Amino acid sequence: MNKQKDLEALRHSAEHVLHTAMQKLYPNLRKVMGPPIETGFYMDFDLERQSISPDDFPKIEAEMQKIIDARLPVTGKEITIKDAAELFADNQYKLNTIKEIEKAGENPEIYEIGTPKDEYYDIDLCKGPHVKNTKEIKAFKLLSVAGAYYKGDENNKMLQRIYGTAFPTSKELKEHLKNLEEAEKYNHRKLGKQLGLFAIIPEIGKGLPVWLPNGYAIRRELEDYMLKLERKHGYKHILTPHISKEILFKTSGHLDFYKDSMYAPMQIEDESYYLKPMNCPAGMMVYKLGIKSYRNLPIKMGEFGTVYRYEKSGELHGLQRVRGFTQNDAHIFCTPKQLQKELEKVIDLLHTFYKDVGFEKYKFRLSLSDPKAEKYTFCGSREGWKQAEKELESVLQKRGLEYERAVGKAVFYGPKIDVQAINVYGKEDSISTIQIDFNLPERFGIYYIDEKGNKAHPFVIHRALIGSFERFFAFLIEHYKGAFPVWLAPIQAQVIPVSDKNNEYALEIAKKLMEKDLRVEADISDNTMQAKIREAQMQKIPYMLIVGDKEEKNQSVSVRLRSGENKGSLPIKEFTDIIIQKYLTKDLQLW
Amino acid sequence: MNKQKDLEALRHSAEHVLHTAMQKLYPNLRKVMGPPIETGFYMDFDLERQSISPDDFPKIEAEMQKIIDARLPVTGKEITIKDAAELFADNQYKLNTIKEIEKAGENPEIYEIGTPKDEYYDIDLCKGPHVKNTKEIKAFKLLSVAGAYYKGDENNKMLQRIYGTAFPTSKELKEHLKNLEEAEKYNHRKLGKQLGLFAIIPEIGKGLPVWLPNGYAIRRELEDYMLKLERKHGYKHILTPHISKEILFKTSGHLDFYKDSMYAPMQIEDESYYLKPMNCPAGMMVYKLGIKSYRNLPIKMGEFGTVYRYEKSGELHGLQRVRGFTQNDAHIFCTPKQLQKELEKVIDLLHTFYKDVGFEKYKFRLSLSDPKAEKYTFCGSREGWKQAEKELESVLQKRGLEYERAVGKAVFYGPKIDVQAINVYGKEDSISTIQIDFNLPERFGIYYIDEKGNKAHPFVIHRALIGSFERFFAFLIEHYKGAFPVWLAPIQAQVIPVSDKNNEYALEIAKKLMEKDLRVEADISDNTMQAKIREAQMQKIPYMLIVGDKEEKNQSVSVRLRSGENKGSLPIKEFTDIIIQKYLTKDLQLW
Description:
Two copies of one chain form a homodimer. Chain A is α+β, with helices and mostly antiparallel strands. Chain A has three domains: 3-175, 2-Layer Sandwich (Threonyl-tRNA Synthetase, Chain A, domain 2); 194-240 and 279-478, BirA Bifunctional Protein, domain 2, CATH 3.30.930; 493-585, Rossmann fold (3-Layer(aba) Sandwich). Chain A is built from 18 helices and 28 strands. In chain A, the strands form seven sheets. Chain A has an eight-stranded mixed β-sheet with strand order 11-15-16-23-20-19-17-18. Chains A and B meet through strand 10, helix 7, strand 11, strand 12 and helix 8 of A and strand 10, helix 7, strand 11, strand 12 and helix 8 of B.
């Protein structure tokens, strides 16, 4: 087993220890479930009207520690449906699960902590894996408590959920807790407000973020970057309306399969129009505007397309979970022969992009069809799916990339690669997706004329390197703790006069730099120089250019970095060359 | 009277001559109205079930010529309501108008052509002015016939409308007709299709244009240009969602006064959301995010905001009249003292913009309040309106601009300046608007803390230099007949190999230029060189770079302009410098 699997087993066992402790402290408790998750574990339970609060954590943690100190064995085995039903006769949730196991034609498995004669003894329906002994849980902590609907369905009963985490060493736990604290300090909602990046305004609507000047400067920089990069890779860009007629989404199938995520239609002169939840249908229509031959392929059609999708208000979260967002979207239409090369190019583009925004850690997940389920009978052909899956995997291998292989996790319309970035706190987020779409080309009757003069469906690679500018921005803000590199910084340099005698010179310097399309401001407010420096530092502006009489005389600027470091006096020309160089090369370092 | 007024009188008289002729040919005809318009005149009439077609024009024109040749006097006079009612007793439309005149407490005026003893005699309810004699109409032509609802209301009867034009000389008429023909040849819908600029796709919806790759390249270039230009002028940009909660449009008053132009609301979790018809309300909310002091002003907040407004499907027209469009919008919040300077800056920005896109002819119209109507009682203060009107006018005068003074044409929320550009065919279109808004600051409770520590409403200049990217683009396409200058051309240069031996070199040249963020393609299709040149010329690509063995050997390109002119062989470095220079300086000339 690899390290990640070991960690999962450790955390899963910590969760069982939590259950054992809770059962002792609250005999009425009915456990529902409790899996390990990316950063720890959680446990859902039903305690009727009694509710747990973080104040109870010390008591629970002390109980857990006793179980760990008791060095109890953790053992698993398979049992019969009948035995399981008897064992968990007083827990309706477990009985439901047992019924599901029976329906799937499988046998229940259980895990025990300790033995019936120990002071602490617990038995739970569980597939494991676990550690062999509770003593292996060297470091753990309970973190928070929340409500959670049974099976995530708001029509079901509201349960309680305790989150916790566990590590093989207390050093690692300590580091993790420090990261959490930092993450909270630098969370994107807090920084978004502090730095004037975005706002959620109640009168406009929940989940409908407004990009404020500093945020929009970054968004625009990213769009321009992507546009230029994609152009060099042969992409052309379109822009399609935010509303479209019903027939478009009937054809695409969204009204059959995706209606719950779409907003209600608007009537315009007896026709129904919908806000678009995806850019694909309009993209297909643009492809269809003329007859295409194999000579015209590949066609790479990009769009910075804003889509609107319904999310429950309770699930909205800053920029991470919103109701309207913009995708850096593209559809690549190609022949079977071109598929491999085009996938390689997408992966190369992705690497360039991740490098330029400074993401070092990211991982790939390849979602393939379930050979038993024969998903490709829904759309596409067996050969099409086989080729697509083979080539998606082969491009990952060819590029020497580690990836998780998720068999049976393909979506109904095709296999895909998802890319998750991992930020400095270990927090992960889905950033990019590369999918093969077998559905839309068939539904829209998309074809090209092949070498033999026959009509053929092209392969359609649907890729979004920035799946959502909003979500990506949330990640980016936290990744940089708001201290963006020069090329992304909303204000790249702030000119600060030593006294108001130097105001004119400060304005002149700012103007010179602005002429070069740099984002520069001069602070000629009434504040003191010290206050201006503090403010610029708070705003995490990369360079402060302090200008006094000496600088004015020498046509120079005194450079101070946002870290507080002084770089001394530089001729204005020299500083201009440095900042432009940093900007153009997307240098992540300020000096 | 100035030249334009003379032309209007001439055309208005030509319309009366048309009526006289029609009355003779179709005794059942009931004229409704017939004004001069920008490019000629039209006449609305009711002929019951008989319909006029262009086939009837020669006959009507011959009759009109007879009236002109008869050199009949045209005379006007005031009469009483009673006399007028008797004169037009058999024409219900005229009787309606007479009632309106009576209601307004005015006297009707009539104009006569000839006298009752002439072969041709006509009397019409009309305020004039007219020419003195029909002989002054030296050149005229009927152009088209269309349907038109009485008073423009679709619940009223459908009338017929004949369009025509008239000029003081046949040379001018000939030129105008040639212009019309050219305009038809180069109309933006035709060129939009031919050059792959935009498309209206029925499945997406009427009035909802899709920007195709070549059109989007221009749109993006314009956006970037505006963003950078506005930044240099101190603007900062935001981006607000396309849907917003009902409360926003209740506060702004749009739901009271603008509802007919808005789409039906969507329900989201028991709240109503509307597609935004204007960007202003969200802009006001952004201003309100923090307390502002006079020290923070002026605040210039720009947005490339896409709005959706209802237009009847019958009134939709290419990119000119659409249901969804993007504005280059901005709100300038300033103190009374700053107003004049900010208005000057807006005018200067506008001049830079018009120069850079190559518009030479444009005119200003200043819409002021009606001193009798006291519009400012609706919102704003008397002093506010006075200052705003005085300063709007003074900035036009200061800059030495000719302008039309439209007293009583201010909108309810404030006075404004509209700018119309005139294209090569004399066709005019509203491009820009600069308005003072007294309404929204009050409705949203927008204020700043003034020097004395009191709350005060700022002046809000609402300006859109590109009132609609869509409409502007329609104008731009026709202005350039699709042959855009280098900085706007979707493809700036096409590399064309002499034979397929030179394909590699062609690709290498294209790549080199693309590295500089130029929009360049290499045509390595199977077509002949001649066919490729023809195609590039059809696409109006500024430069064709022909590359054969000689060019490959010398690392050069042979430059051909889209006019067909050959500029000979140039080292690639030298051509690169030229095209970049043309691009950056927005040179309208190719060589």
